[in-house]
Design goal:
The strands form six sheets. A six-stranded mixed sheet has the order 5-6-7-3-8-9, sandwiched between helices. It is an alpha/beta fold. About 60% of the residues lie in helices and about 10% in strands.
Amino acid sequence: MSGANWLCNTSEDQFAELWDWNLTWYTATPSFTSCFESTVLVWIPCVYLWVLFPFYHFYLRKNCRGYIRMSAIFKAKMVLGFALVLLCISTSFYILWEVTRRIPRAPGFIIGPPLQVVTMVLVVFLTQMERLKGVQSSGILLAYWLLCFLSAIIPFTSKIQHALKGGFGEEPFHHIASYIYFTLILSELMLCCFVDQPPFFSKVIDDANPCPEAGACFASKITFWWFAGLVWKGYRQPLQTDDLWSLTKENSSEEIVAKIEDAWNKNYARATQTADSMKFKRVQESSETIEETTILLQPESNKSTLLLKAFWTVFGTYFLVGTLSLVIGDVLLFLIPKTLSLFLDFITNPEAPYWKGYLYAIVMFLLACLETLFEQQYMYMCLVLGVRLKTAVTDLVYRKILVMSNTAKKATTEGEIVNLVSVDVQKLMELVIYFNGTWLAPIRILICFVFLWQLLGPSALTAVAVFSFLLPLNFAISKKRSQFQEAQMKYKDSRAKLTSAVLSDIKILKLHGWEKNFMGKVLGIRTQELQALRASQLLFSVSLASFHSSTFLIAFIMFAVYTLVDEQNVLDVQKAFVSLALINILNRAHSFLPFSINAVMQAKISLKRLAAFLCLEELDQTETDSGSLDCMLDGVVVRNGTFCWCREGPPCLKRINLAIPRGSLCAVVGQVGAGKSSLLSALLGELHKTEGILAMKGTVAFVPQKPWIQNASVEDNITFGQKMDRRWYDRVVRACALQLDLDSFPAGSQTEIGEKGINISGGQKQRLSLARAVYKKASVYLLDDPLSAVDAQVGQHIFDQVIGPNGLLNNKTRVLVTNTVHILPKVDNIVLITNGAISETGCCQELVQRQGAFADFLRSHNPDKKEGQDMQGTGVEIIPTGRMTHQRKLGESYKPSTERGGYKPTVGERAGFVAEGEKRLTGRAKASIYLTYLRVAGSLLWAYIVLLFIGQQVASFCQGYWLSLWANDPVCNGTQQHTELRIGVFFFLGFAQAIGKFGSIAAVLLAGTVASRKLFWRLLWDVLRSPMTFFEQTSSGDLLNRFSKEMDAIDSVIPDKLKSLLGFLFNLLEIYVVIVTATPIAVVAIIPLTALYAVFQSFFITTSCQLKRLEAASRSPIYSHISETFQGSSVIRAYKDQQRFILQNDLKVDENHRASFPTTVADRWLATNIEFLGNGIVLFAALLAVMNKTHLSPGIVGFSVSYALQITGVLNWMVRSLAEIDNNIVSVERVTDYSVTPKEAPWTLDNHLLHENWPTEGRIEFKGYSLRYRPELDLALKDISLKINGREKIGIAGRTGAGKSSLAMGLLRLVEAAAGEIVIDGTNIAKMGLHDLRSKVTIIPQDPVLFSGSLRMNLDPLSVYSDEEIWTALDLMVLKSFVLDLPDQLAHECSEGGENLSVGQRQLICLARALLRKARILVLDEATAAVDLETDLQIQSTIRMQFSECTVLTIAHRVNTIMDYDRILVMERGRVAEFDTPEILIAQKGLFYRMAEESGLV
């Protein structure tokens, strides 16, 4: 600093210096020169502020949060600021006055006060500007005042020392100015720790529960103490959703999705345009096919890159700021071993003054604290970014669902989509945290080598040998692991897909007794998944053990080479333990590398999956033109239209020419699979239009053939987001025959409907779907066979009151797909579709007179009619007049559906086991859950694991202690004795530790796999063994969440965190032993700090668990909503209601974000405070070492302090691992929760009374049988007593809700008897196993259900029949020609739910499946409601022929299908109203007679 000495020279002292080593360093009482105090210490804060001023000023101008009124804090700051300005001006003028009086003053002394004046003016300016811009607490000015305080405290103490020596009288003004300056600076610093009031026009003022971060001071923000309020609240009482803070704008879905959607659309459009232009250019140049193919495939390979670019565009800047914090933290991290080197140098020098030791100890502590602050800020920003990324991905996926084409829907499933927004999103969140490790870890390694070179010279490079072995090994392991993980994800998707199908169609599985078979299929996939997981974890164990052993291997090779190459190379304390500290940093970087590589590999797979989904084909929103018919009378026009389900597929509708006048009713008829539903899909724009024109006038309402019902109230399902018009609502309800249902529901219109309408009947679903459309008041109504799911009387009522000429929709354009022939004379126009083409159009009478395809169609539906009658224009007489003479009949026979159990309480209303189980999940996880997990894996295995951990930690302690003895070895003639012995023992101890590390890690992960396998089996068993009431009361989203997210936590997270917890726990105990061994008095500091650590941990875990549960609870509705939207996307699009559903999704995502954000902050709050505690232990260990310097050997001090430096990371990771386990052990609680729920009867019983061929006759007897769906509900069946003879054909008739389906449910024991019994061939079915019963009784339910898989698998799920038998069954069900036309025939893949087949085709496949079983008892529950009459008659004929030896019970809406049955059972209000032959019942002119009359049969 000699060049700057001119600043200090005066006329009297021309040799004054800026810096004097003898005065400052080489002395027992250090101090600075007066020139240094007057210049450098004054300039440091000034330079800091002026350097940052341009950037901060720019930031303030760009970010305005409103202005703050002049508060007391602001006024105090301004007063103190002006006081400082006046003080500095006074000092400047006083110095100038001294110079004029020829009092010698150095140039540096003169420059300081004016510089302070302009800086203080700048501070006043910034204080005012911050107020105008709404800054409540300034980090920039806080740092400035802190620097001023630290710079002022040294001159302040110097002045006091000078005054005590009598120097006050020499310079009284400067003494007083210094005292005042210090007081004002201290006051400003204290004021900066307070927060100003919120600015005007801020949302925080109006927010009932704003996030306290915005109103926290800077110190609170960087230490996360603003979170302490929620921690305390969570510790005192269970947290509720209302306790969570509102989201800030930058964290809301509205803000995030707008940016990410814009970025993704721009990138995708740009890439598509580029690909198209390159393709065009290649075609123009007539390039080779291979090159052209490469260009065409390029967009596919770059999908994930496009998505990554979109994420970078939105989140890149925030990520870079976080990365800067990490880099600064790393710089501070490397300064710690440098300080340790100086500290150990002090320890080895007996003459060094004690103040240096204290200084080094404090500097180490401050560096560690600063490193903690910067690293935790980085983690906080990454985790917040991860939550934002989750929001972005979930919203993108949801929006994609609403625009997916039919081809795209077939290419994915609900389970895969749930995995995208749960598992894959988690992988992307991990990428944000670990990505920087891929480039920063190698830089850390390089810096470590540089520092090691300075200590050990060229010997440090020998560690490269270790890396040259370990790095390729671990890269190979990572690559192999990624293959296993990809396979695991594939199996996980397959499992999720099959599990979703099982849960969705559990009723079908139970009716057929297939639970065990499908459970075996799921477990088979699960076994493959766990095999891939186990192989991946074994490789992970090798990787982790090698990285943990790298510390020992590097130290061993370097120390061995260093000491053996040259005898003069002495391994002293400084070289040994500073090297060890650097190697620990090296190991940290080295161990961070596999996590980073693994995270990148997994995220790459997830990004690819996500990008592939987002790039799936979308519907062309311009397929339907709704605005080109303003001057036309037609409501729907199709001209020369050709449509197909996918762009490359064959057309399903050909040369369609259709014009439907406005206000008319058009019926679309045709055989099963002719293309009726496809026509409606084309009109909705759901099909790809290859040619032609399609236009519709006005708004559209759509009633699908398979009703889509929301998990919402009845009122919400009907109004469907529109404003409530009570008068119109009541008219719609009455017209759709829903009034009596609503009167019977517990809460009327506010009654909650379960998912997929699980708690209402099929007829109620269809009428609810129709009511939704009618309430819409649309211009065009597309009705896909809405009358098929209701009986004839209700169907006639709906036609008359809603659809027909006098109905509510009489002035609307209506397109009605129907198989109900008797209503055709009342429609304006009929369209007959044959094989995807319109064969005839016209009114009914006109088409009959033509004697064309329509006449043949009518004859096939009325084979008993004579040809002459048809020729005479009696098409009008197809329905006898007077069939429905007065409305009274509907009211008489239409009963509240609760009496038959049609309504069952749903999730929101239940007070049962599941709800209670959820309520119990508050506070910390119980010890019993941990014990459950440990017991499942095996007690002996855990005992073995603990022994392995103890062994490897003992080896680690002995290794460090041996190194301290080695470093203490005396030096004789420049060399150390017994070097070879020291190296040999050191190697043996390190090798033992490495073996123990691998064994302990592998054993924990293996135990986790064992526990995961057993817990999944138990969950699947508990769920499948549950009765149907369980599935009616439990949301599918909750079940899917447990099978996906919760099991993923048990598979991967819990074993990994448990491995970390045990490792860090034993590591912590080792560090405590080391410190206490060196300085026993350290116990005095360790005990209170550990107690404080336990307090922090307790507070944190209690709150964190509750936040985790709130987050999990808010996650399930997202999955349920996604699943619901996926199923009903075509309905949502038809109603043009996408925006409302998007807003609902955004709201659910934001609710989840409200819980995710505090969880993220909780981790940072804990980590910061725990690391401060760890740094405190380091400080105490170092201070005690300084105090006991004369009694300790340098080796022991090095051993103690170097190990103490590791404690911050150990404490932090240990409590985080414990918290993660405590948070995720909830998954064990949730998957075992169903073990205590009621179970249905055993599947099989050792019943020796049954012979193999039971039942031989199929004789059924009901003896005083009653049934209720739940204890609190009325009886659905009341005192049923009847006998059905073997081989008898029984038709079951009755109005909607009469108890027909309940009879079938009772026969198959889907609901157990409330009283009485059912006896089959002399055996009481209540004493049989459920599968023993259900395997002998075949039922075809009303809703046809197919599983995702081959057609053969759907026909023969148990794989017991030959292809010949299957083809025979298909032929009998008139499906053979259809299947033969399929490209893959029996191997044809059915999409989820069989969506790629028509409803009629699905029903026929289900009938063929029943035909194959050849059971003695067959129950048809309205199984032919979805097929046309001709097909129905063919099916009935097949049933009569093929099931002639069987007892057949047919529940039917169409009375004509059961007229030739042996006897008819008429149900009314859950009782047997009539039971006799059709002839006798008609002669009695009772209920059955009236039903036959209504159907035109009498």
